[in-house]
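--- STAGE predict ---
source: upstream dedup step, 1 unique chain passed
mode: sequence only
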Amino acid sequence: MKKIQLLSLLAAGTVLASSAAFAAFNGPSGAKKASVAEAKGMADDTAVVLQGNITQNLGGEKYVFTDGKDTVTVEIDDEDWRGLNVGPEDVVVITGEVDKDWTTVEIDVDEIVLAK
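--- STAGE serialize ---
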C-alpha cells in the first residue's frame, strides 16, 4: 500500500513540475516580442516576434520592415506568405530568427500574420 502512495506522489510531482515548465514556454518557438532595435542586438538564431509594417520589396524574398522607429531587412519565403496580401499600411506580426552576418542583420521570417 505504501508503494502505491509513493508512486502516486511521484506521479503528481512530475505532473506539477512539467506544468510549471510548460507555463514558462512562450509560443511555438519560444520567441519573445521585441523592437527592431532590440532584435538587431540579439544573438544569431535568436527567435523573435516583431510588429510593424513592410514598407518595401527589395526583390526576391527580401523586404524592408519597420516598427516605426527602426528598420531591418526581412526574408520571407514565398510559402510563408500563405496567401496573405499586405501593403505598407497593414500592420503585421512576424515570427522568425535573427540572422547575423559580419556586417548585416536580417530576420529570417517563419510566419507572418495581420496584427489584430
